[in-house]
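Study the following:
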Amino acid sequence: MATRITGTSSRRTTGTGTGASGGMGTGASVGPVPATRSRRVVVGKAATGKGAFAGRTFKKGDVVGRVRGELTADPQRDPSYCMEMDSELFLIPRAPFRYLNHSCSPNCQLFMWDGQEPEADTGTRPLFVEALRGIKDGAELTIDYAWTACMAIRCRCGSRSCRGWVVDANELEFVAP
């Protein structure tokens, strides 16, 4: 169940995400671990395990941070956390972005800068997290995993626009009720 980075804009390629604490976040702040103001993102207790939380306020369009981790050709190596890159490689993210939970109404998205050349050592472009709207200090950071219908699981995000399934909105019709 890997993240698919899809879609383009004039400045960046955007995508959706997967992999977090193996569960879905509620979007409600259960509580970040106290952090210094220099920490942009902190890991804390979320409704379904661990979550990534804002260590400061972000405005819409802000780059929250770069997703770093280990590249692998095998998405089954750590399937709960894999993020598909723009090559045939998958990223197993390190904390804090390893703990981005799902929401049907996310406040963040994954993206790659359009036109950026792949890095020589990895053969892929870097992956970043962007704020989709204003995010307050301490709020849980979430993305829409947008899994394919064949991988869909019940959603527990709790957002008002919850689809009921962790699935790409365009594939919702293919998920059994």
